[in-house]
């Protein structure tokens, strides 16, 4: 009997752990799946394991030999901040990215099972779209995105008047933008001082090095110089037609020259020349200074769709600097000498996610 014309039987969907051998196929899926983001890229697995030493549990759903969905999970366990399974810590997004509802539900079900087996306090999925109304949610983080034009003057005109004046101030002060591939040196130094001044523990320098090592040309630094001195910086990711400024900061003198507003306009210009059409300004907590800055820069805040499946915890986690119990710590941290902050900060920040 000739069976060559018969359609092979359909294989059932199955969820399995991803291995390094799946990395290329995983990233090909992420590159085309509408729900996937830069934070779904397989390289984050290496970054998180290498820099933060957290166990990862990357899951993929497969049917008929093809990936139908992915879910990166990381186990973050801390005596200070709780025990959680997160998709994905240190990232804005990272929840299920799938092509169909069957794959989404299968991956979420396996994530729940992992959370129960690990005995975590909660499972957190940082979704890109609304999901699981049966899980807990809270409106703390907001995202900021808008289109950008290939014309720098069009982007400038789209910035509200007060912030546009800050950009023009930077132009008048003859600020210079410099692309920087060695983001773990001068870019990191500005970032570290900036977050210390905000009362936030700094990430390790190794994170910046590993990000560049892992993502190459899709991870780019931009510094702003004034009279030869670096006063502001931003490290950005590129994904599809998007630019995502992610780690940014400025020294105190950056404010007088409008360096921060100038820097993001300059980044829009350079990203558009590279082919970017969307400026993704990341996430900010409502009520924070960065939230106000992005809103005043012309971005409309949109609530991020984070969902929590409580396991051992009786209530949602409240790990954020707006929590009153952290205010004294923040005031004290701002006063730390920078070398001390750079030494102690990485130990704390690895648990914040």
From TrEMBL:
Source organism, top-level taxon = Bacteria
The record's section on SUPFAM superfamilies has: Acyl-CoA N-acyltransferases (Nat)
- Give all residue intervals belonging to the BioF2-like acetyltransferase domain: 163-295
State the InterPro entries in the record: Acyl_CoA_acyltransferase, BioF2-like_GNAT_dom, PEP-CTERM_FemAB-rel, PG_Glycine_Bridge_Synth
Record Gene3D superfamilies: 3.40.630.30
Name of the featured protein: BioF2-like acetyltransferase domain-containing protein
Gene source species: Candidatus Magnetaquiglobus chichijimensis
């Amino acid at each position: 009997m000739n069976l060559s014309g018969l359609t092979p039987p359909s294989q059932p969907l199955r969820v399995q752990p991803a291995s390094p051998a799946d990395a290329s196929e995983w990233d090909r899926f992420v590159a085309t799946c509408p729900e996937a983001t830069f934070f779904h890229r397989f390289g984050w697995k290496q970054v998180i394991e290498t820099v933060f030493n957290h166990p990862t549990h990357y899951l993929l759903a497969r049917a008929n030999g093809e990936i139908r969905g992915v879910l990166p999970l990381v186990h973050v366990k801390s005596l200070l901040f709780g025990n959680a399974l997160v998709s994905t810590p240190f990232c804005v997004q990272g929840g299920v990215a799938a092509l169909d509802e069957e794959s989404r539900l299968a991956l979420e079900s396996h994530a729940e099972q992992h959370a129960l087996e690990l005995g975590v306090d909660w499972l957190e999925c940082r979704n890109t779209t609304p999901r699981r109304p049966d899980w807990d949610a809270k409106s703390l983080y907001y995202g900021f995105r808008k289109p950008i034009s290939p014309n720098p003057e069009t982007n400038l005109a789209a910035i509200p008047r007060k912030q546009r004046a800050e950009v023009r101030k930077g132009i008048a002060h003859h600020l210079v933008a410099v692309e920087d591939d060695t983001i773990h040196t001068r870019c990191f130094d500005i970032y570290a001082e900036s977050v210390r001044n905000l009362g936030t523990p700094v990430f390790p320098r190794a994170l910046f090095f590993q990000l560049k090592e892992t993502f190459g040309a899709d991870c780019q630094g931009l510094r702003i110089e004034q009279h030869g001195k670096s006063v502001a910086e931003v490290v950005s990711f590129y994904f599809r037609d998007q630019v995502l400024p992610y780690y940014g900061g400025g020294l105190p003198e950056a404010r007088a020259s409008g360096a921060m507003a100038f820097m993001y306009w300059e980044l829009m210009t350079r990203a558009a020349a590279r082919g970017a059409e969307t400026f993704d300004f990341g996430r900010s907590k409502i009520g924070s200074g960065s939230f106000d800055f992005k809103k005043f820069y012309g971005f409309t805040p949109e609530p991020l769709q984070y969902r929590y499946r409580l396991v051992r915890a009786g209530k949602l986690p409240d790990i954020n600097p707006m929590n009153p119990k952290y205010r004294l710590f923040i005031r004290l941290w701002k006063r730390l000498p920078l070398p001390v902050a750079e030494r102690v900060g990485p130990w704390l920040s690895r648990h914040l996610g």
